[in-house]
């Protein structure tokens, strides 16, 4: 059974060395935007939790709002981790696909009381992913040098980074967006 999330990051054979050299100052505005909207997105996720608990319904407009924020956050991370040269935008980027399936209104998959516990169930994932993310943060400067010197990102590290982001997306959909009751697998694979 397919998990209701999808993250697709195409590998680039050649990356812009100038863009990589200036990546931190270039990504700063997007990170400021993500942090500015974070309290509002927390409020929207709280409203989603209330809606599911009391009405067993995920409002479509809140899903779209949360999904837009999620796409922008993940595109910003992909850009920050040097996995793409494509600058993150609020519009759908052609190259980077970030999707979470909307829980259908007729679908009874969203249990009413589960939003109260999902954060607790997500803790093992968060612990493991925090360690993987730390490793990724330690590896990224080496990749930065690799791209500056050779013009390309190391293949295996690219696969690892993509796997970590895919796993985060599944946990994000489950524990933060509350878009699925299907427990995320402990896997770097799709």
Summarize the structure.
The protein has six helices and two strands, in the order E-H-H-H-E-H-H-H.
- Residue windows where pLDDT falls under 50 for at least 5 positions: none
What best-fitting shape do the alpha-carbon axes yield?
A: globular
For the termini, the CA-CA separation is 11 Å
Order of helices and strands: EHHHEHHH
How helical, in percent, are the residues? 55-70%
- Compute the average pLDDT: 92
The major beta sheet can be summarized as: 2 strands, antiparallel
Number of distinct beta strands: 2
The order of strands across the largest sheet is 1-2
The helix tally amounts to 6
Structural description of this entry:
- This protein is mainly alpha-helical and 190 residues long.
- Helix content is 59%, strand content 4%.
- The protein has 6 helices and 2 strands, in the order βαααβααα.
- A two-stranded antiparallel sheet has the order 1-2.
- Helix 2 runs antiparallel to helix 3 (60-80) and helix 5 packs antiparallel against helix 6 (155-176).
- The termini are close together.
- The relative contact order is 0.20.
- The model has no long low-confidence stretch (mean pLDDT 92).
Key features of this structure:
190 residues; mainly alpha; two-stranded antiparallel sheet; 2 strands
Task: Give the arrangement of secondary structure elements.
Layout: E1 5-8, H1 17-21, H2 23-55, H3 60-80, E2 97-100, H4 118-121, H5 123-150, H6 155-176
Antiparallel strand pairs: 1-2
């Amino acid at each position: 059974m397919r998990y209701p999330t999808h993250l697709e990051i195409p590998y680039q054979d050649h990356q812009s060395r100038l863009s990589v050299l200036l990546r931190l100052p270039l990504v700063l505005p997007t990170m400021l935007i993500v942090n500015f909207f974070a309290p509002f997105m927390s409020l929207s996720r709280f409203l989603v939790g209330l809606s599911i608990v009391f009405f067993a319904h995920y409002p479509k407009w809140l899903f779209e709002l949360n999904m837009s924020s999620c796409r922008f956050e993940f595109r910003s991370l992909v850009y920050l981790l040097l996995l793409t040269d494509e600058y993150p935008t609020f519009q759908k980027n052609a190259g980077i696909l970030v999707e979470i399936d909307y829980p259908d209104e007729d679908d009874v998959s969203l249990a009413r009381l589960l939003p109260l516990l999902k954060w607790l169930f997500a803790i093992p994932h968060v612990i493991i992913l925090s360690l993987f993310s730390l490793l990724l943060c330690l590896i990224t400067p080496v990749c930065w040098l690799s791209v500056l010197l050779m013009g390309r990102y190391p293949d295996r590290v690219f696969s690892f980074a993509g796997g970590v982001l895919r796993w985060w997306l599944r946990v994000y959909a489950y524990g933060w967006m509350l878009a699925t009751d299907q427990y995320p697998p402990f896997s770097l694979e799709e």
